[in-house]
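Hi R.,

As promised on Friday, here is the backbone we talked about, encoded as C-alpha cells. Could you run it through your design pipeline when you get a chance and send me back a sequence?
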C-alpha cells in the first residue's frame, strides 16, 4: 500500500521543478503578449 501512495504522490523536488518550469513558461508567454510591460 505504501508503494501505491508513493507512486501516486509526486516527490517535492518533482513538484518544485515542474512549478519552476510552469512559471518560466508563463513569464515567456506574458513577455510575448505584452512586450511593453516586460521592458519596464
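Update: got your reply. Pasting your designed sequence below so it's all in one thread:
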Amino acid at each position: 500500500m505504501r508503494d501505491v501512495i508513493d507512486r501516486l504522490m509526486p516527490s517535492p523536488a518533482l513538484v518544485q521543478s515542474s512549478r519552476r518550469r510552469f512559471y518560466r513558461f508563463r513569464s515567456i508567454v506574458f513577455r510575448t503578449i505584452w512586450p511593453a510591460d516586460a521592458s519596464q
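One thing I noticed while checking it: The chain has one domain: 1-33.

Thanks again,
M.
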